[in-house]
Amino acid sequence: MSDVSATIKSIQDIMRKDVGVDGDAQRIGQLVWMFFLKILDDQEEQLELTEDNYISPIPENLRWRNWAADAEGITGEELSEFINNKLFPALKELNAEGRNGGRALVVRNVFEDAYNYMKSGQLIRQVVNKINEINFNRSADKHTFGDIYEQILKDLQSAGNAGEFYTPRAVTQFMVDMINPQLGEIVIDPACGTGGFLSCAIEHLRHQTNTPEDWKILQQTINGVEKKSLPHLLCTTNMLLHGIEVPSNIKHDNMLSTPIKDHPWRKKLDVILTNPPFGGTEEDGIENNFPATYRTKETADLFLYLIVEMLKDKGRAAVVLPDGTLFGEGIKTRLKEKLLEECNLHTIVRLPNGVFNPYTGIKTNLLFFEKGKPTEEIWYYEHQYPEGYKSYSKTKPIKIEEFDVEKEWWVNRVENDFAWKVDIQTIKDNNYNLDINNPKNTDPSHRDPLELFAEYQEATNQMRKTQEQLKLLLTQALSEPQESEVA
Predict the structure, then answer these.
(1) What is the value of pTM for the model shown?
(2) For the purposes of burial, counting CB atoms within 10 Å of the CB of 39, is it exposed (0-12), middle (13-18) or buried (19 or more)?
(3) Helices then strands (H, E): number in the chain?
(4) For the segment 91-106, what is each residue's pLDDT rounded down to a tens digit?
(5) Helix-, strand-, coil-residue percentages of the chain, each rounded to 5
């Protein structure tokens, strides 16, 4: 563990000396395209042993082993010019036809928006030599790097807006465990970010594979779509790390950009696991891909509609959504009505403050539903902080062990201090407001917004009355003659 960890730290220290790398996002982007090529080369080394006449889609002189592996190889200005003028242009234009077309397409898509930020060829050589200390065909190195890669993804939380692409591992793991994808089911994250849900799904399904054919099925059924280039690169590399030999099902695209009625995945997906971006808006015109009744520019709302439409009969979904979706009105009300009529929204796990710190303090919920039957009742479970915690933070994140109580309750549901159920008629009578409080909880943090607003209005009215009374008293005091004036 310490060797690989020390290597990564050394690489980061070297990169900080380079004038071209500015901030965490650029450092991570630089680091990952280099690791991508090393991981790919190590993987090809194995494929050359297991496949007859394996041919790499990358031209021989551009393969990692032929320009990077020799510690005494090209360096300085020669190395910078090679990367900028030969390597990048060639990888962006790789021929994606023929025997290894899928693999070539993966490389081409990764480098489509990748960038060499480092200016110093000497420092690039130092980084390359450090990367060569890690052997991705050695299980110990690979496992350790997997843990470090997870930390790299966490580091994105402090890299500006890029933080939106990381969902805490404990949350993704719990959602995958509860959805329980099965080998052969089509699994997708339509806003996959760095691939946290997909990597958890792969590890979950790995236990169901017993033959090479099983493993082939697993690789073909994992899908992701991500519209931004850095998280797409991170996700593709993540898939390689988790054994996906040709992660061509990780698309660099916006899943909202295809008209819903024409979408090739409509009513065909078995499992959807996602944390769609919330609080953001889509570019002009995207909303026109949706029926007029549901048109909005709010990303989370569009994804919720998309998810319901993409699921096949008995398809299952687990989705992270903010409190605002639960109590919102207008289009949000119509969305929730559609969700509850077409799906069985059987469980909402309410998360406390700080789960997504430091990226956002917005309270979030985990929604679990199945397509094909209308909702009759919804079970709520209020997740509790560990003893002694008042919030989560970067140094004190949520942990998977905390969900053990939910997992135990999941299979034998009874109402308790943290679990309650609400029938569908109550939901309808409440205009599809899903922001329903724990009846046994006196903590005001999850109270009904309508109650809070009414209290706010009452307090405002009371304050106005008090001001008017004070004004009247003051006016009377000023109008009354003073004793000296009477005398």
Answers:
(1) 0.83
(2) buried
(3) 19, 9
(4) 999 988 877 788 899 9
(5) 55, 10, 35
